[in-house]
Write a structure and sequence with these properties.
Helices cover 3% and strands 54% of the residues. With 722 residues, it is mostly beta strands.
Length: 722
């Protein structure tokens, strides 16, 4: 015991402190006991469980490959601080997350984390030890650990639907499906049961084999608890007859992979086909072709078809049909059931009309076949070649030439006639029409073509009108339509008239020509028309071309400028007549039947002036002892003559009392020009003047005549009596 010195309290102080001190001094030192409460919680729980010293901490089951932790809470409920030292754990799979010394003050706690990682399935025991120490005392604490390693255990089985039994199957074993019709579906349920002590994971499920597929497969990866099932379906859907195989693969989390064989048999009828004619034939599959031997036209050919069931189940032949010109199916009783290996035989006939290939479609239920038959003989096919491009043209069809400008010619199109038959043939008739479709070179007919020989007919299209034109190439009794489109030709260049001026004399015969300012690329044909506008309201029929009439044709060859009249004349003459007025020369141009347009009317106008009369001839008519007749011929463009002046000359030695005679003829000439008869002669006239002579007629040697009107006087013309 330690004796300490006690100092008395100050005066007036209470003495309780002194008593307390004395009591403390009287307490002896002794060993202390920790006052701890222990609790723990698992990783999956937030609640705490109590555990006493030497008690057991229970871990939850842990799957192999995983781990779990338990947190121990050591709470100091006493007045003395303690330090946890020498933390240690024993037992397979147990470990401490932290093993350092830790102080635990009164009313506080510390955690201790224990980890368990099982190395094998089954129960494992362990122990946690540590010391609680202070300055005077050390106390050892023991806690026991109880844990289990858990693992799945997989059992596989299947149930063939709809009412099969559940059958176990080991990895590598076979899952046999029942016989299944083609395109039908058989289904089996596959079951995976976890018979282990803990949850397991299925990572993936796959199936191979074109006839097998999965159905109803849950999302993967999938966890399967102990004693639980994982289910999905496997479908067997064969597309072809015979045996089928596949493979089911299941992958588990722990690297376990199990493979199972899938087998199935497709049962169905399968048909093969064979055809024969004249003792020869061959096998054919659906979609194939039966090419029959060539026969004489009109001779029936019989073909036999044999249908054989090569499958492993009975099958029905329900329908047989045949369509095509020249083909006929023999009567057949259907449907018929064919057992495996059994056959059905039916026949049809083909009668060729010519050397053309005749096609038919043969159908036996869902199987289809192409049938080709052909007769012996020539067979014409047609094609049109333009440049390097050849276009087939069916008999009776139409070939269209390239668009061609009216007046031009298309490129030569060669019609190719080919003998695609198997015998030589002759062509005796070959024509093309109308004339705008012209055969360039016509072969000598008849012409014989051997098989595969080609006859070429060059044809050119020369349109004469704008728009669509149709024609025909006739090859014996076969017609090929010809079609062309004529395009509008270019406009006419500027036109000029040559050889004439703006005026002309009456009864003249000028020559007129026509010329283009630029050459024109196509042949031009044209008409020159003479018109007349009279100043006296009377036409003059004498106005006409030298060729007769008031119209004349001309042509301008392609790529030239000058018009040609007749065979080769560069101009044409015309008469101007005898009546005053305007002569119009109007030119019309065309290419083919297309009238060419010009910027302005192509007209040349010539004026015939209303001049004084013209006397063309004076003659002496009948004579008597006392008179003679003067015949005066002339014309007056104004269609008027008012006076005739006659001057007489005497014979040698004779003296005439009257030498000049003026005759007013306005009345007679007016009557003449107003008569219908005068219109035929324009302004021409012939007038007879009778001269009475007092005395000897022989005294008159000659007479000179002049005519006049408002326009002036004519020329003078003299006629001799002697």
């Amino acid at each position: 015991m330690t004796i300490r010195t006690i100092t008395p309290p100050a005066t007036g102080a209470r003495t309780l402190l002194g008593v307390a001190a004395l009591l403390a001094i009287a307490i002896p030192a002794a060993a202390q006991t920790p006052q701890f409460r222990y609790t723990y919680r698992t990783a999956a729980s937030v609640s705490l469980r109590d555990v006493a010293e030497n008690g057991t901490i229970e871990f939850p089951g842990v799957a192999l490959g995983d781990s779990t932790v338990v947190t121990l809470i050591a709470e100091n409920r006493g007045p003395t601080p303690w330090t946890i030292t020498k933390l240690a754990v024993a037992g397979a799979g147990f470990s401490l997350e932290s093993a350092r010394d830790q102080a635990v003050n009164p009313a506080s706690s510390i955690p201790v984390t224990i980890k368990f990682t099982p190395a094998a399935a089954g129960r494992v025991s362990g122990r946690l030890t540590f010391d609680l120490t202070n300055q005077t005392t050390a106390v050892s604490v023991n806690l026991f650990l109880d844990a289990s390693g858990i693992a799945p255990s997989w059992t596989t089985s299947y149930i063939v639907q709809p009412s099969g039994n559940q059958t176990l199957i080991e990895a590598g074993g076979a899952l046999p499906f029942p016989g299944t019709a083609i395109n039908a579906t058989a289904q089996a349920q596959f079951l995976i049961q976890n018979r282990g002590t803990g949850e397991g994971t299925i990572r993936n499920v796959t199936v191979s084999g074109e006839s097998f597929s999965l159905a109803g497969l849950p999302l993967l990866p999938a966890r399967v608890a102990a004693d639980q099932f994982f289910r999905f379906n496997i479908n067997f859907n064969p597309r072809t007859a015979g045996s089928h195989s596949g493979q089911l693969t299941v992958d588990f989390r722990d690297g376990d992979q199990r493979v199972y064989r899938l087998t199935g048999e497709a049962v169905a009828a399968a048909f093969s086909y064979e055809w024969t004619t004249d003792g020869a034939g061959s096998a054919v599959t659906s979609g194939g072709t039966l090419t029959l031997p060539e026969v004489e036209p009109g001779t029936p050919q019989t073909v036999a078809v044999t249908v054989r069931n090569t499958g492993n189940s009975a099958g029905d032949v329900r329908t047989v049909s045949l369509s095509g010109t020249g083909y006929a199916l023999a009567p057949l009783s259907l449907p018929q059931t064919l057992q495996p290996g059994a056959t059905l035989r039916f026949t049809f006939t083909f009668t060729a009309r010519d050397a053309a290939v005749a096609e038919a479609a043969l159908r036996v239920d869902d199987a289809t076949f192409r049938v080709l038959g052909r007769g012996l003989g020539a067979r014409w096919t047609f094609a049109a070649r333009l440049g390097q491009v050849s276009t087939p043209v069916a008999a009776g069809a139409t070939y269209t030439f390239p668009n061609t400008v009216v007046g031009g010619r298309s490129a030569v199109v060669t019609i190719q006639i080919k003998n695609e038959g198997n015998r030589a043939g002759s062509i005796s008739g070959l024509t093309a029409g109308p004339a705008i479709f012209r055969i360039q070179t016509l072969p000598a007919l008849p012409v014989t073509l051997e098989p595969n020989q080609v006859l070429e007919i060059p044809i050119q299209y020369a349109p004469t009108a704008v728009g669509v034109a149709s024609g025909t190439l006739q090859v014996d009794d076969v017609s090929i339509g010809l079609r062309g489109i004529g395009d509008t030709p270019p406009d006419l260049p500027v036109v000029t008239f040559t050889g004439v001026s703006d005026s002309a004399k009456a009864l003249d015969q000028p020559a007129v020509g026509i010329q283009l300012e630029e050459t024109y690329p196509y042949d031009i044909t044209g008409t020159l028309t003479a018109g007349f506008t009279s100043d006296t309201f009377v036409d003059d029929p004498a106005i006409q071309f030298a060729s007769g009439g008031r119209t004349v044709d001309f042509r301008i060859p392609a790529n030239s400028k000058e018009a040609i009249f007749g065979l080769s004349a560069p101009n044409v003459q015309f008469q101007t007549g005898t009546v005053a007025g305007s002569i119009s020369l109007t030119a019309a141009f065309q290419v083919g039947s297309v009238r060419l347009s010009a910027d302005k009317p192509v007209v040349k106008t010539l004026a015939i002036a209303a001049d004084a009369p013209v006397i063309r001839d004076v003659r002496i008519g009948s004579q008597s002892a006392a008179s003679f007749e003067v015949l005066i011929t002339g014309y007056s463009p104004a269609r008027s003559v008012s006076q005739l002046s006659l001057q007489f000359a005497g014979a040698a030695g004779a003296q005439l009392q009257t030498t000049t005679l003026d005759v007013n003829v306005d009345g007679p000439f007016g009557s003449w020009y107003q008569s219908a008869a005068s219109r035929t002669f324009g302004s021409q006239f012939t007038v007879a003047v009778t001269i009475a002579v007092n005395g000897e007629l022989t005294a008159v040697q000659s007479v000179t005549v002049r005519a006049s009107n408002a326009r002036g006087q004519s020329n003078t013309v003299t006629a001799n009596l002697r």
